[in-house]
């Protein structure tokens, strides 16, 4: 492999210096306001535009993106981000203020209506809100909708529990707790799927909802989904679909058809909007008819005259974002779906699943369960998965997600996505194979070829220094 | 495959490669890999057309083109300042925008350093010791701050006190976030767009968990009683949370000087511009709350060679480790927006920020004076200093006036039967005289 990071070194103590080390200025604050309403001074970096350009270009050269090489992070779905969508989101006509009159933003509302419709079709849902600004925010929105539904049925006080499989994303647990629910953890069966007996024991009249990822985080389709749905529904609970793994199902199965009542879509995963170093994303939420009345405000609809307007559903839970969500991300998602259409979306899933299965076949590690959808979890066995990851960096590839889900020892959770070629997958497999043969000493010493060598995370946590002001301490 | 119709344009597989890979896996077709029972298999079509890049671009361009081209004098929590081209070009570097959360710090030093620098700039702007590296927006940041109060305080209060003029959406977000917790929201009256300090003193008692004030407030008024508000919160044993933004913080009283425990707000006032409400939640707090802080934190450490390097830290607070006991459920945040804000702030520098902030005091003062000179207009309505925006009273129905202004090409807020709110910044000041003329015509 041939990926090497730039290594801009300043001296023995820093790589690229901090902005503050390049030059700050402490300015005295003067204004036409009374003195007691203003601060005295402000000290911040002051650099010329060329200096800033170099600073950020150097930093970018010390960062790995999907455009740098394969990025097979399981459950994060890091796929190529088309460039044209960036241009569309940068159009002045996209940059409007949210408090404009509805007549004057028919384009914005029309696009939102279109995306609501696209997502509803893809998920088999009856209504969609675009408001949640991330997947976890979508989970929280979905749980608030479920809570409002039970409340409206007079069961708000009774249904105090959310059931979540042990293999689920951590956000599921956190979102349920944030919404005030007790979490009931559902142990997985030996084959990594939902244990139906355990499910029977877990759900009851306290159950508000079951949150499920399908295919799950091991890349396995929950084949008993109809039984699971029936069990939850019979108990009076709702079934929530975590859309993190939807990229595996496009055009093959829809959450709505499987019996799910609520779902979120991670547009930054399934619909290729950039994660941007950790966000922004967007987490639209789809619901079936009986829950449509509870969707957040605002929702967009089209009148008989063809005019787009926002409205507040009758039992709306209200806002979950200060305005209408991460709008520019939604523009990119709409453009991506408009580019791919039925055939492109379906092919994306086909190739993502093919890539995962092909790579799983080639990795030298024990892959405990199968067959796989978009991702698989290998076990590094005697090796430390974190060390394996660091060593993979030396082979010029980004490692998979490590040590999660914790039901697999030394887990390497790998999701190549549809955008990797056979050659690229072979290179990834070669890196896995090379690392698997190496001794612990070599692994502990890795990485050697990156800008920074192995970083001491323990000291960072024990002695937190979170700003340049804290560096002198 | 690439360039052709009928598949994903971003999947690079040639038919031969696909065949080889299927062979290696041991199946005849891709469909054989889908382990989905026939009863839930989807055999229909979405009915979504595929388009070439050019067609998709034209389609979305046409759609957005239906927006009217208006000069916006709009604010109320979502602000636009001129974003230098530098910000677009550098933030679009694909190593930044196509990267993920920095779980492997050795290959994400660039982004980690940017976020560390972003946190540091917020520390200087707020005077507080800790800043995280983003929440979704100002509304969710406020809600997270209230939840922090619930976790971090020793007393048992349950009331979250907010100004009565809090934006409706912000109020609803707060109620949603507190809905599952033992906290409730109460409003405090306002005078001239700022908190009624006497009413706050009445309201604050042992049951008060959290006191929220804004500077500037949603009407653009500069709050003159921050120290008193902070003292009242302190006496009640409540957390004092201040709402602001990076431009206002460059000029107005430093939150740490008035006793703020937490500062929240929408930091996207720098770096983004009007984006239909897409924001960047600012979150800074005192050091004693470090282990209760929601969201991600970047810390400085050292690498194996003893050279300073950065990493995500204190992740045991986060949902992927702590699950239902995490300090928040946030995972994907607004990192790239924070990068844009940081570059914008750095490009202005301290003097540039102070100059910009001073303009945000002087421009509304001048615009208000011009509007006030019109018969039938009173501006500003509130006897306060203003930042960016102010309320105007008109002696005609405000709805009609707003419609006429829109016909003339201007967007303003209607905030009452006879009240209009106007926001002026560096991006619309060139049209201020035209706005005044349009007001003149309407009245």
From TrEMBL, chain A:
Keyword Ribonucleoprotein (UniProt): no
CC per GO annotation: cytosol; glycine cleavage complex
Keyword Hydrolase: no
Domain Glycine dehydrogenase C-terminal: 348-442
Transmembrane segment boundaries: none
Disordered: region residues: 1-39, 439-473
Annotated Basic and acidic residues bias: 442-456
GO terms, molecular function: glycine binding; glycine dehydrogenase (decarboxylating) activity; pyridoxal phosphate binding
Enzyme class name: oxidoreductase
Record-linked Pfam families: Aminotran_5, GcvP2_C
Superkingdom of source: Archaea
Domain Aminotransferase class V: 147-276
Stored InterPro entries: Aminotrans_V_dom, GDC-P_C, GDC_P, PyrdxlP-dep_Trfase, PyrdxlP-dep_Trfase_major, PyrdxlP-dep_Trfase_small
Keywords (A to Z) from UniProt: Oxidoreductase, Pyridoxal phosphate
Enzyme Commission code(s) on record: 1.4.4.2
Catalytic function, reaction form: N(6)-[(R)-lipoyl]-L-lysyl-[glycine-cleavage complex H protein] + glycine + H(+) = N(6)-[(R)-S(8)-aminomethyldihydrolipoyl]-L-lysyl-[glycine-cleavage complex H protein] + CO2
GO BP of this protein: glycine decarboxylation via glycine cleavage system
Protein name in UniProt: glycine dehydrogenase (aminomethyl-transferring)
Organism classification: Archaea, Methanobacteriati, Methanobacteriota, Stenosarchaea group, Halobacteria
Automatic annotation (TrEMBL), chain B:
InterPro entries: GcvPA, GDC-P_N, PyrdxlP-dep_Trfase, PyrdxlP-dep_Trfase_major, PyrdxlP-dep_Trfase_small
Origin: domain of life: Archaea
Record Pfam families: GDC-P
Molecular-function annotations in GO: glycine dehydrogenase (decarboxylating) activity
One record GO biological process: nucleoside metabolic process
Residues annotated as domain Glycine cleavage system P-protein N-terminal: 10-429
Keywords: Oxidoreductase
UniProt cross-references to PANTHER family, sorted A to Z: GLYCINE CLEAVAGE SYSTEM P-PROTEIN, GLYCINE DEHYDROGENASE (DECARBOXYLATING)
Protein name according to UniProt: Glycine dehydrogenase
Organism: Halocalculus aciditolerans
């Amino acid at each position: 492999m041939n990926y090497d990071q730039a290594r801009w070194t300043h001296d023995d103590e820093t790589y690229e210096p901090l902005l503050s080390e390049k030059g700050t200025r402490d300015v005295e604050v003067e204004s036409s306001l009374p003195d007691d309403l203003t601060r005295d001074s402000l000290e911040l970096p002051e650099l010329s535009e060329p200096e800033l350009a170099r600073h950020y270009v150097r930093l970018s050269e010390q960062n790995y993106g999907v455009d740098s090489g394969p990025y097979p992070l399981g459950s994060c779905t890091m796929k190529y981000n088309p460039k044209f969508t960036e241009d569309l989101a940068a159009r002045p006509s996209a940059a409007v203020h949210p408090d404009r009159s509805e007549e004057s933003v028919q384009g914005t509302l029309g696009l939102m209506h279109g995306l609501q419709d696209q997502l509803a079709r893809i998920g088999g849902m009856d209504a969609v809100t675009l408001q949640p600004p991330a997947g976890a925010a979508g989970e929280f929105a979905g749980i608030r909708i479920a809570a409002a539904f039970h409340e409206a049925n007079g069961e708000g006080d009774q249904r105090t529990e959310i059931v979540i499989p042990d293999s689920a994303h951590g956000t599921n647990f956190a979102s349920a707790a944030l919404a005030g629910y007790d979490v009931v953890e559902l142990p997985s069966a030996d084959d990594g799927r939902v244990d139906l007996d355990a499910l029977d024991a877990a759900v009851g009249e306290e159950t508000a909802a079951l949150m499920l990822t399908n295919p799950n985080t091991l890349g396995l389709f929950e084949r008993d989904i109809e039984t699971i749905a029936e069990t939850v529904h019979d108990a009076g609970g709702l079934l929530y679909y975590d859309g993190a793994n939807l990229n595996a199902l496009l055009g093959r199965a829809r959450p709505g058809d499987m019996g799910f009542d609520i779902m979120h879509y991670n547009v930054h995963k399934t619909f290729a909007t950039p994660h941007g170093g950790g966000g922004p994303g967007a987490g639209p939420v789809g619901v079936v008819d009986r829950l449509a009345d509870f969707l957040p405000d605002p929702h967009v609809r089209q009148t008989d005259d063809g005019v787009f307007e926002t409205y507040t559903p009758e039992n709306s839970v209200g806002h979950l974002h200060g305005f209408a969500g991460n709008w520019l991300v939604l523009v990119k998602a709409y453009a991506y779906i408009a580019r791919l259409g039925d055939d492109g979306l379906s092919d994306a899933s086909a190739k993502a699943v093919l890539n995962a299965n092909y790579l799983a076949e080639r990795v030298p590690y024990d892959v405990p369960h199968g067959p796989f959808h978009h991702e698989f979890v290998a076990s590094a066995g005697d090796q430390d998965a974190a060390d394996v990851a660091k060593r993979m960096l030396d082979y010029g590839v980004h490692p998979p997600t490590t040590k999660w889900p914790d039901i697999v020892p030394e887990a390497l959770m790998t999701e190549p996505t549809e955008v990797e070629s056979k050659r690229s997958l072979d290179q990834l497999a070669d890196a896995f194979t090379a690392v698997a043969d190496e001794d612990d000493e070599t692994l502990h010493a890795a990485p050697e070829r990156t800008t920074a060598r192995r970083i001491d995370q323990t000291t960072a946590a024990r002695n937190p220094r979170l700003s340049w002001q804290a560096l002198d301490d | 495959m690439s360039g052709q119709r009928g598949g994903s344009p971003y999947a690079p597989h040639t038919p031969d490669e696909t065949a080889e890979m299927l062979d290696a896996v041991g199946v005849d077709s891709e469909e054989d890999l889908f382990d989905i029972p026939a009863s839930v298999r989807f055999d229909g079509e979405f009915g979504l057309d595929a388009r070439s890049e050019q067609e998709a671009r034209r389609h979305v361009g046409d759609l957005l083109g239906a927006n009217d081209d208006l000069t916006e004098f709009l604010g109320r929590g979502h602000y636009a300042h001129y974003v230098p081209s530098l910000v677009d070009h550098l933030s679009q570097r694909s190593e930044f925008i196509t990267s993920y959360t920095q779980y492997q710090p050795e290959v994400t030093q660039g982004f980690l350093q940017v976020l560390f620098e972003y946190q540091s700039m917020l520390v200087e702007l707020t005077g507080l010791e800790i800043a995280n590296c983003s929440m979704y927006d100002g509304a969710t940041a406020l809600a997270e701050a209230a939840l922090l109060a619930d976790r971090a305080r020793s007393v048992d209060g349950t009331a979250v006190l907010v100004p009565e003029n809090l934006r409706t959406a912000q109020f609803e977000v707060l109620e949603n976030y507190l809905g599952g917790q033992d906290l409730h929201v109460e409003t405090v009256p306002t005078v001239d767009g700022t908190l009624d300090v006497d009413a706050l003193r009445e309201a604050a008692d042992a049951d008060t968990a959290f006191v929220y004030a804004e500077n500037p407030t949603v009407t653009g008024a500069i709050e003159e009683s921050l120290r008193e508000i902070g003292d009242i919160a302190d006496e009640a044993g409540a957390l004092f949370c201040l709402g602001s933004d990076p431009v206002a913080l460059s000029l107005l009283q430093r939150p740490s000087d008035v006793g703020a425990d937490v500062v929240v707000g929408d930091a996207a006032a720098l770096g983004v511009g009007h984006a239909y409400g897409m924001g960047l939640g600012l979150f800074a707090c005192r050091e004693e709350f470090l282990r209760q802080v929601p969201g991600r934190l970047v810390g400085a450490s050292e690498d194996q060679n003893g050279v300073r390097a950065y990493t995500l830290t204190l992740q045991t607070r986060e949902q992927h480790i702590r699950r239902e006991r995490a300090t928040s459920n946030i995972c994907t945040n607004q990192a790239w927006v924070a990068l844009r804000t940081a570059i914008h702030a750095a490009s202005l520098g301290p003097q540039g920020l102070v100059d910009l902030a001073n303009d945000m005091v002087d421009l509304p003062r001048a615009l208000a004076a011009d509007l006030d000179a019109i018969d039938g207009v009173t501006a500003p309505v509130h006897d306060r200093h203003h930042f960016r925006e102010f309320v105007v009273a008109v002696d005609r129905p405000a709805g009609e006036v707003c419609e006429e202004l829109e016909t003339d090409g201007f967007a303003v807020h209607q905030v009452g039967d006879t009240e209009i709110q106007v926001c002026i910044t560096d991006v619309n000041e060139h049209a201020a005289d035209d706005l005044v003329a349009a007001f003149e015509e309407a009245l």
